């Protein structure tokens, strides 16, 4: 791939690392939790042939600075876009990245052509239905199992447990990649306090206010809670559409790469 940029941008209280590849319409990729920009390596290989792709590390992950006090998730992304000279882009976020992308789009709609929210993670449901409440109970059970394994066996063991729960359909080498990323970014799991500040009130309570196009992708092998968040987002956002991939889990770029690729290419400007 040509036109490859690697650089840092200073932000209040720290710095952020980003990379940029290719030429064409701008696509900015937002990582899932416990990962860094390396999770996108297989995606960048084909996407940079069609677009200018920017990836970046959140604070506390990858090569970006650790956070020791409050900072704005939205301002951090704006700083990366400014440094990478991206005026307007398709934001593609997976898991936590979907939440971040939607929060940024709410604050700065003029800088976003569309949000692609893949297996978006938003935490607790406001006013949950019985099905949503039950799905969160399953999640809390998983989180409790992770805490027990972390205390008993350490980071590598809990990373494997977590990846196997979220990504049961990932091929073995991709499973190893995801476990390695969790181990490398273990600071996120071990921090006593997360310092990032999201949209206030949070975007999960404001889907109806999002006027821009939103394309949602969910896998049927993901946690039910993730699937129910996708349905809630599509029901509430005025311009949202839904793609369901039966074979995909929480990371469809690994578990269903052909369907994921088709989904992303369909969103690129002609």
Give a quick precis of the structure.
This protein has 270 residues and is an alpha/beta fold. 41% of the residues lie in helices and 20% in strands. It has 10 helices and 10 strands.
How is the topology of this model organized?
Blueprint: E1 5-11, E2 14-21, E3 26-30, H1 41-47, E4 52-56, E5 71-72, H2 73-83, E6 89-94, H3 96-107, E7 112-118, H4 130-153, H5 155-166, H6 172-184, H7 187-190, E8 196-197, E9 214-219, H8 224-236, E10 240-245, H9 252-255, H10 257-267
Parallel strand pairs: 3-4, 3-6, 5-8, 6-7, 7-9, 9-10
Antiparallel strand pairs: 1-2, 2-4
Report on the architecture of this protein.
This protein has 270 residues and is of the alpha/beta class. The protein has 10 helices and 10 strands. It has helices at 41-47, 73-83, 96-107, 130-153, 155-166, 172-184, 187-190, 224-236, 252-255, 257-267; strands spanning 5-11, 14-21, 26-30, 52-56, 71-72, 89-94, 112-118, 196-197, 214-219, 240-245. The strands form 2 sheets. An 8-stranded mixed beta sheet has the order 1-2-4-3-6-7-9-10, sandwiched between helices. The chain has a two-stranded parallel ribbon with strand order 5-8. Helix 8 (224-236) links the parallel strand 9 (214-219) and strand 10. The mean pLDDT is 97.
Main pleated sheet: 8 strands, mixed
Query: Structural class of the secondary elements?
Result: alpha/beta
**Uncertain stretches:** none
Total beta strand runs: 10
Supply Rg: 17 Å
- Count helical runs: 10
**Multimeric state of these chains?**
single chain
With strands numbered from the N-terminus, the spatial order across the biggest sheet is 1-2-4-3-6-7-9-10
Order of helices and strands: EEEHEEHEHEHHHHEEHEHH
Helical coverage, percent range: 40-55%
Alpha-carbon distance between the two ends: 21 Å
Strand content: 15-25%
């Amino acid at each position: 791939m040509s036109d490859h940029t690697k650089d840092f941008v200073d932000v209040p209280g720290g710095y952020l690392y980003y990379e940029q590849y290719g030429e064409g319409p701008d696509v900015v990729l937002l990582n899932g939790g416990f990962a860094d920009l390396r999770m996108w390596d297989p995606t960048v290989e084909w996407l940079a042939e069609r677009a200018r792709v920017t990836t970046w590390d959140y604070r506390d992950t990858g090569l970006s600075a650790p956070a020791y006090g409050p900072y704005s998730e939205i301002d951090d992304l704006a700083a990366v876009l400014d440094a990478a000279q991206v005026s307007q882009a398709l934001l593609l976020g997976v898991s936590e990245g979907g939440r971040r992308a939607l929060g940024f789009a709410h604050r700065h709609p003029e800088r976003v052509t569309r949000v692609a929210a893949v297996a978006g993670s938003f935490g607790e449901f406001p006013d949950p239905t019985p099905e949503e409440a039950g799905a969160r109970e399953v999640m809390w059970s998983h989180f409790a199992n992770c805490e027990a394994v972390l205390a008993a066996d350490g980071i590598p063991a809990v990373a494997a447990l977590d990846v196997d729960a979220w990504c049961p359909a990932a091929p073995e080498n991709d499973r190893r990649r995801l476990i390695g990323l969790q181990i490398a970014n273990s600071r996120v799991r071990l921090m006593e306090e997360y310092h990032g500040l999201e949209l206030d009130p949070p975007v999960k309570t404001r889907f109806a206010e999002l006027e821009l196009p939103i394309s949602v992708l969910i896998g049927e092998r993901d946690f039910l809670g993730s699937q129910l968040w996708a349905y809630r987002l599509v029901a509430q956002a005025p311009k949202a559409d839904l793609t369901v991939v039966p074979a995909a889990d929480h990371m469809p770029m690994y578990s269903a790469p052909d369907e994921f690729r088709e989904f992303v290419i369909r969103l690129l400007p002609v």
